[in-house]
Amino acid sequence: MLGAALAGPGAAGAADIVANPKAAPNKIEQCIGCHGIPGYKASFPEVYQVPMIGGQSAKYIEAALNAYKKGDRLHPSMRGIAASLSDQDIADIAAYYAQQTTASPK
Questions:
Q1: Could you read off the pLDDT tens digit of each residue along the chain, which spans 106 residues?
Q2: Contact 82/68 with Cβ under 8 angstroms?
Q3: 0.70 surpassed by pTM
Q4: Whose C-alpha in 18, 22, 32, 76 is 20 to 30 A from the C-alpha of 58?
């Protein structure tokens, strides 16, 4: 009981989320425009190589999206996109990309 109290508010809610990669195709439209194009370079806010996220671990993708959502990662486009995602959306998207390989179609 004390452990649950120390976990803080929202800890139980996060534990209730079950990732569903089959729900992700309706949520990834904003992702594939950059992350689904091999060799794509974005020009905002500066020119950089956009990483391919297929095959990344779900934990990494969830952590990255949550960091953008909180403002810990500072890319303005990604922050805007992540801010629009619920915790369930993030889990579904992370599970979807984690089950792909870098050669999988996006």
A1: 444 444 444 444 566 999 999 999 999 999 998 998 888 888 887 888 889 999 999 999 999 999 999 999 999 999 999 999 999 999 999 999 999 986 554 4
A2: yes
A3: yes
A4: 76
